Amino acid sequence: MKYQSQKVAYWYFLAAMALFGIQVLGGLLAGWVYVSPNFLSELLPFNVIRMIHTNALIVWLLLGFFGAAYFLIPEESDRELWSPKLAYVQLIILLVGTLGAVGSYLVGIHGGREFLEQPLWVKFGILVAALIFLLNISMTVLAGKKTAITNVLLMGLWLLSLLWIFAFINPDNLSLDKMYWWFVVHLWVEATWELVMAAILAFLLLKLTGVDREVVEKWLYVIVATALFSGILGTGHHFYWIGLPGYWQWIGSIFSTFEVIPFFLMMSFAFVMVWKGRKNHPNKAALLWSLGSSTVAFFGAGVWGFLHTLHGVNFYSHGTQITAAHGHLAFFGAYVALNLAVFTYAMPMLRQRAPYNQVLNMVSFWLMTGGMAFMTFVLTFAGTIQTHMQRVVGDYYMDVQDSLSVFYLMRFGAGAAVVIGALLFIYSMLVVRDREIIAPGPAASVPGE
Amino acid sequence: MAEILTKSRARNIFYGGSIFFVVVFVAMTVHSHRYVVNVSTAGMPLSEEVVRGKHVWEKNSCINCHSLHGEGAYFAPEVGNVMTRWGVLDSPEDAFETLKAWIESQPSGIEGRRQMPKYELTDEDMRSLAEFLRWADQTDTQGWPPNEAG
Ligand code: HEM
Ligand code: HEM
Ligand SMILES: [Fe+2]
């Protein structure tokens, strides 16, 4: 850590990890309701649990991105943050908003657009926080050095904040509502967040592998170009059956198929950089998470996304457990694992010590990744059966669900592994030990920075 | 990547291409917006009652259990075609009665069956909700869902 003001990232990461804990516990609870439907049904109905699960996810991922930006921008632009104080104000606004949202959900106050259920004042809070953030990082970069990493990161963050405007636009016409809703949801995870992901990944690989900056930055531009060229028109893969014109079936199928490319490139990029790199960085866990993230993102977003993106397939699979399977692995690989990679990389520096608890951290990687992969497999099986019975044969929804209970039981087991992994990760970040639990092997030849 | 693709070329392609795709996307959005208003949802007027029903739907967060046109949660049945499934699509009165009877019978309390929460809706809310669902059911969704099961 070169600059004092990078320290603000620490508090963002702490808040993010707390919400991560809440998110996975909420998920586990939702998974249990599938197994035992009467559980808590009068006190805390499924829809409320689900809102908490998904909203906590989105907020903590954003907190992680904000923290990552505050951590890497001073280092990239070679100067202190414009205003650390504003960064803390921003964090407080976000935390008040989050607690306010959760509190309102518990007493039954919420909107009714999926993922955007926050009460209006919370939405405004998020907008204000985003503006403070953009001001802060833009002023820092403008006054300092501009690199491809800061360019792309800033562009991603500006665009995703602009898209938040659509969270306020809720037309009375349901089909229009749905169309503009996707401007937030799809154009976040399959366009602007990809810019953020690629920039952060480039930063991590630059630091961890020591590959030449020129090479990293050229890859970065190619990756983000393929992301936007495919992702913008790829929005069409959500426009097939919601009352929009039929031409989206072709536009959506073709362009969203190309969306696999940026994820494939990010995975290749990560492995090629490690292969070319000369540096033997001591933070092995951060490297594991970086490689893991780009690989699982390729499978979750790329492969599982392509699985149901062609309109001929989507006609049958739309809105089944197949969608849930894909949503989980994609979010986990691309955005959860990437954030955990940043935390793993930055935390030792923020606490001013050498990398620690690497073994526990790596165990948590395998627990979480294994759990999410298993969850994805069982939901994919459940979704395949559901698609056949309900969409092809025409059996009623509730009857079909009764025949899927064994998969939901296994999903709960997978979820338990994820929760244990998540708690272990948080423990390994926060509870510092003097020594690794296992003694390291013979010293590596050339240590990195 | 060969020498032809320098970093600054890659950057220019990225900026130029992105602007191009944004422009195309905006144009298609304008067209789609008009198509929705004039064609696909023109089957039934977007009355005040329908709009009110949409707000009832949102206020109760039905979307976090059900799907509507295939979007939402996967915990409970699709409702974009529920009026067809119940055979009441063309009769506002039957739609209202059937919906009211359904909501008032929940939660069922049956052991091992997924529970719908208890909703205390006025008759007016219930009527609007029924109209909203009838309206949604009449949207031209390119033939989706494949069958009545939704
Ligand atoms: C990291 C990137 C991605 C994330 C986080 C993500 C996440 C999600 C989520 C959460 C949904 C469900 C939305 C809802 O509630 O209705 C969804 C739907 C969908 N995704 Fe992705 N996705 C990603 C990338 C992709 C890619 C690259 C493709 C295509 C190649 C794709 C194809 C689809 C399709 C076709 C649907 C609609 C499924 C349906 O019809 O029910 N996704 N995605
Ligand atoms: C403890 C592990 C987890 C369990 C048991 C779990 C369970 C669930 C359940 C039951 C739902 C509701 C599905 C429905 O609508 O019927 C859900 C939704 C969702 N969960 Fe999880 N979850 C877990 C972890 C995660 C993680 C780690 C992520 C992020 C990577 C995540 C992201 C989501 C998303 C995006 C949705 C909305 C799904 C969609 O619309 O497709 N969950 N989860
Ligand atoms: Fe998408």
From TrEMBL, chain A:
Which organism's genome codes for this protein? Answer: Cognatishimia maritima
Q: Which domain of life, per UniProt?
A: Bacteria
* Compartment list: Membrane
Instruction: Extract the GO molecular function terms from the UniProt entry.
Output: cytochrome-c oxidase activity; heme binding
Keyword hit for Endoplasmic reticulum: no
Coiled-coil region list: none
The record's comment on protein family reads: Belongs to the heme-copper respiratory oxidase family.
Key words, A-Z? Electron transport, Heme, Iron, Membrane, Metal-binding, Respiratory chain, Transmembrane, Transmembrane helix, Transport
Q: What is this protein called?
A: Nitric oxide reductase, NorB subunit apoprotein
Automatic annotation (TrEMBL), chain B:
Q: Which residue windows are transmembrane per the record?
A: 12-30
SUPFAM superfamilies tied to this protein = Cytochrome c (SSF46626)
Domain Cytochrome c spans what residues?
48-137
Stored Pfam families:
Cytochrom_C
Keywords, alphabetical:
Heme, Iron, Membrane, Metal-binding, Transmembrane, Transmembrane helix
| GO molecular function list | electron transfer activity; heme binding; metal ion binding
**The protein's name in its UniProt record:** Nitric oxide reductase, NorC subunit apoprotein
